[in-house]
Amino acid sequence: xxxxxxxxxxxxxxxxxxxxxxxxxxxxxxxxxxxxxxxxxxxxxxxxxxxxxxxxxxxxxxxxxxxxxxxxxxxxxxxxxxxxxxxxxxxxxxxxxxxxxxxxxxxxxxxxxxxxxxxxxxxxxxxxxxxxxxxxxxxxxxxxxxxxxxxxxxxxxxxxxxxxxxxxxxxxxxxxxxxxxxxxxxxxxxxxxxxxxxxxxxxxxxxxxxxxxxxxxxxxxxxxxxxxxxxxxxxxxxxxxxxxxxxxxxxxxxxxxxxxxxxxxxxxxxxxxxxxxxxxxxxxxxxxxxxxxxxxxxxxxxxxxxxxxxxxxxxxxxxxxxxxxxxxxxxxxxxxxxxxxxxxxxxxxxxxxxxxxxxxxxxxxxxxxxxxxxxxxxxxxxxxxxxxxxxxxxxxxxxxxxxxxxxxxxxxxxxxxxxxxxxxxxxxxxxxxxxxxxxxxxxxxxxxxxxxxxxx
Length: 456
What we know:
Elements: H1 10-13, E1 44-49, H2 68-71, E2 76-78, E3 85-87, H3 91-95, E4 101-106, H4 113-122, H5 147-154, E5 164-167, E6 172-173, E7 176-177, E8 193-194, H6 217-230, H7 239-255, H8 258-263, H9 271-277, H10 281-294, E9 299-303, H11 316-342, E10 348-353, E11 357-358, E12 375-376, E13 380-385, E14 393-395, H12 412-422, E15 430-432, E16 438-440, H13 449-452
Parallel strand pairs: 1-9, 1-10, 4-14, 5-8, 5-9
Antiparallel strand pairs: 2-3, 4-13, 6-7, 10-13, 11-12, 15-16
Helix pairs in contact: 4-12, 10-11
């Protein structure tokens, strides 16, 4: 029986080069270790993900002078950055634009949801070979680990606080599970902790954090000590047993961590605070993300919708205007207000992104009366704030119809590299893939203008 492809020793993953220089375990690094800007400033990263593709033209990069079939139905409004406009349906973001860097020249080549999601969350294409069908591109243990998994591998938690939390949706649609959401070849031990309940539900609770009646944390700890004592050493190659034991250990840590348990008790927030975020799944997910930052979770992925929520081929403007944009607009404003007021924004990097954007030209799907926009990865926009990122600036520029960059293009690999840099993870760190090849974890360029304000 063959060992799983991801079963590679810990030291083997941390190779500094093909020549065999090996990196040691990585502690928190001081900002003086590297020359890159913003290094080590982020203790937490919050990814706000709009799965399906956020239309750049109808949100962060409007083109009011373009023809109607390009600019669409929305008007644009001024922001707190002179000369910069947003969609009329993002009034809170427009008011807070001075807190954000807006990147308008994100670009890559994958126009398929599944492949683009893997690229967005790992900075890499899915492993080859993959077939022509979406069913050939689903999640696999040969995938590259996402950022939460890589951070957990390099800096495993020892205090009961999970390294990565994904909420409130896992990207699954029928037989398709989107790649890039978990630890790939690093194995199940490093998968982000997935929360699948709706934080806006009055009965919201995380069952995994609930002890059975009569079981106290001290009693649970005694059970764990007994289990450790009777467990025999695992035989070589017993990977499934090892994976189960690893996950069992994570479960014990979570159950005995009072501050993690408390962070999910949203009823501790005042009704006024919950109202500010919006009494909906989007808003309450962002409130929960803030509470996870407060207890020290390093990587939080807040998915605003399930898989194709933002995939607005049909009724693009109705969906954006009536539901999607108002909820995200209000929730992000509350998140930024609270992180700023508490001082946590100085050490929290917030990224608002999709796997790609939408086509410049409006179109109708066959048989559909309401128009929309199709997939478009050639240029799209994202937001970044916190942890040393300069607010009140636009980085990059698209052409007159938001179809292609006319300044330097930035890729998902650059974004992932920027995040690792912000967390103090240096260029020397390599992960060995299932074929034994060392892969530089930082495989792009730091988006330096986020910190300097100087275009490259």
